[in-house]
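Field reference: sequence -> structure
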Amino acid sequence: MIQRLLPFLTLIALFVGLSIASPHFLTSTNLSSVVRQTAVINIMALGMTLIIIGGGIDLSVGSILAMGGLIGSMAMEKGVPIVPAIFVGILTGLLCGFLNGLMTTRLRINPFIVTLGTLGIYRGVALMISNGLPVHSLPPAFSYLGEGTIAGIPFVWFLLVVCAVAVHILLEHTKHGRFVFAIGSNPEAALYAGISTSFHTITVYTVGGALTGLAGMIEASRLMTGQPTAGQGYELQAIAAVVIGGGSLRGGEGTVIGTLVGAFIMGLLANGSDLLGISPYLQQAIIGAVIILAVAVDELRKRRLG
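Structure field:
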């Protein structure tokens, strides 16, 4: 029980500690900035939650984010209206995720290897179609997606809530969600029980890709550029958010709330490091160490239960 509460207690301790350590932390400007900065990783991590619960992993999400943001931005540059262009970015991510799931199931290759390969493929395609150059000619109104507010609350917060509720319902209140947990816990038993493991595996990668495409459009909106190099290293943060929040890399475990808490823990660490003048290089080392620690705790818990 204490291990389940540990992420929540860590988030509270971080929040209180940073409130004391920096007078700038509790300002509305800074808190809005934290929400905006973590929204991209949060939305990506929701998709990663589905994939990891199903017993998979996706190392290509950073490249998918770049593809979605770039192609959506290129659509706007060609004159496509903002809302349809956003859906172009989401569909780009959806297609990339679908291909990941298809190759994993049809070729029967470990998802680590498949997505390690597509990490390079999608990034290379993004660089080729853009000639390595960012897309700058975006309509000013597009900035609302990443920087707009409703009643003083960042618009991306509402998007995040909608995505989180949708993924929670999918996992906890549908047959598909129950099947994903079953596949992640024991794929052979799920197959013998009559569950279409291939279909549900492809589905989680597809949904994860669509969410990453949306995150790519939010990133492009915040920067007001479509960057073919965007999202480098984001896969590490998305996986870390799931693991810190109680998800298991063995599959079959994870929650939406836990993932959101994990992502906000990393967001507060990054924000607090900036406020306190701590090197961003150290932040990367901390994230890596936290992943190892979280997995080690999960392994110890499983051995005790086993």
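Note: The two ends are 17 Å apart (CA to CA).
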